[in-house]
Amino acid sequence: MTNKKLLTVLLLMCCTVALAQKERNSFRAYLYNNEYEVYLRINLYEQNVEVPGQELYGQLPGYLGKLHNSFCWVITACEVKDEHKATLQLINDYGSEDLTATLTRENDSIYTLKQGAGSTIKVPQKGKWQKLPKTLKFKRKKD
């Protein structure tokens, strides 16, 4: 093989590895929404996220948390459809409510959580329950 052909093959292999690595990071992230002070801590691939202070749940695909509060919605199951879309099963930390949601990666920094069948996500806000919108945008915190 000539040097040009070998160099081309190596370059293509490096690009393939880089693309595969980027895809495997789409749903391994810390995402936040400042307006509602909520965040998603997820790793839908290895499913090895622990909820701080609630290690009883063990390792999970992730959770939706509220800033300055220990309340959360736990992701109990997930299915990554492709590098842009995943389906999530969530329950609140009391286990009394559940729902299905879709998490879509719009680009490298914007994600959309769309609530589907089941309960509506509610989080504590100043002593009351605040319903989150059915569709909520999140920003990815830079690694």
What does this structure look like?
The strands form two sheets. Strands 1-2-3-4-5-6-7-10 form an eight-stranded antiparallel beta barrel. About 7% of the residues have low confidence. With 143 residues, the chain is mainly beta. The chain is built from one helix and ten strands, in the order H-E-E-E-E-E-E-E-E-E-E.
List the helices and strands and how they pair.
Elements lengths: L2 H21 L4 E6 L4 E6 L18 E5 L5 E11 L2 E8 L5 E8 L4 E9 L3 E4 L2 E4 L3 E6 L3
Antiparallel strand pairs: 1-2, 1-10, 2-3, 3-4, 4-5, 5-6, 6-7, 7-10, 8-9
**What structural class should be given to the helix and strand makeup?**
mainly beta
Helix count, DSSP H or I runs of 4 or more residues: 1
- In percent terms, what proportion of residues is strand? over 45%
User: Going across the major beta sheet, what is the strand order?
Assistant: 1-2-3-4-5-6-7-10
Radius of gyration: 18 Å
Low-confidence stretches: 14-23
H and E order: HEEEEEEEEEE
Q: Strand tally, please?
A: 10
Helix % is 10-25%
Mean pLDDT: 87
Rough outline: globular
Please give the alpha-carbon distance between the first and last residues.
40 Å
Largest sheet: 8 strands, antiparallel, barrel
Notable characteristics:
two-stranded antiparallel sheet; about 140 residues; 10 strands; eight-stranded antiparallel barrel; mainly beta; globular
